[in-house]
Amino acid sequence: MDYSYLYWVGLVPVVWLYLRRRARRNAAFHAELVQAQAQGLNEPPSLHPVVDLSRCIGSGGCAKACPEQALGIVSGKAVLIAGASCIGHGACAAACPVEAISLVFGTEKRGIDIPQVSPQFETNVPGIFVAGELGGMGLIRKAAEQGRQAMDFIKKRSDGSGELDVVIVGCGPAGLSAGLAAMQHRLRFKLIEQEDSLGGAVYHYPRQKVAMTAPVQLALVGKMNFGEVHKEKLLDFWQGVVSKTGLAISFRERMEAVEPQGSGFVVKTNRGQYTARSVLLAIGRRGTPRKLGVAGEETPKVVYRLIDPAQYDGQAVLVVGGGDSALEAAVALSERPGTDVILSYRSAAFSRVKQKNRTALEQQQAAGRLRVMLESKVRSIDAQEVEIEWQGAVQRHRNDAVIVCAGGELPTPLLQKMGVRFETKYGTL
Question: DSSP label at 310?
């Protein structure tokens, strides 16, 4: 007797359940894509994946590998459904079994300016090098490798002239790696960082954000055997590396100009100037914090990021901005005991923010834990108050602290003044 029909009887329910689950998942991803497009959150900020649909088999491995949940499966193919959340670490490309994913810069609608560099990371200006995020490389592993490799070439340029062999600008993954390589090569170097902490863009990631997905080789240290690692663990590791190696970092020192002099350059900062044979720009694409340009902004109570909401307990705080970082800061502060929070934004609506942040803000606003002032403008800041223009009148509010979350100004004009040429990428490598 032929019992093969029993095989089909058992197989049909399994296939039906699989197809039903796949249809539900497809519908959920499609809904997320439509929502992201409606909210303007489908444009990636920098390096991001592009899927070759002719090769994609819809395995879903890329979507599972993405810690930001930026990818999904729609109509059986991988799609970038939340581009604004993508940080370009490349876990999706590594997880694709058919190599259907490429990492690119810019989109057809929005180009990204990337400095022209040689395979040695040297720009068109001999002696000025670029590594890491500024050059379009957001991957931590690749940025660190670029910093180390650029320093190998800079060593060959060193001829003993000038005060230093190289000035390294920026202490993110590329700058930190470059500094360690400079120590290994016994170069005369200066490592400067405009902020008061190392880590670059990683330092500004949200808490517990996955920051790295592949090991990396560091000079003097060896191989960092991290796979997926959260921001806090990575920053702690880097801080330990700095302490162990004695790497000298000049924090709160901002590059203001680089001018040619003889066979090298004069690097001018807010603290002085240095002559160097080479310059390595390992600065991120966040740029210098965009300021309000109002009286009183230079006072110590004005900062440009929220580090610890608890430090503002019982205070009156003004948050300025309309992006996700501003909303997240306002919500976090409103949850602290005794904190009086105002969120000021110049536009009439929040157009490019995640729905979860929008919902959290609305909940806190409905509960009376914070005030939102749309179409408002900060006029002045003094020791105990802030002046805000809103609804046709100028109001004064008690204030202990101001947190400006208005994005950053890229150093493109500064680099162009040095003679560095850029090329605009529209969804290309």
Answer: G
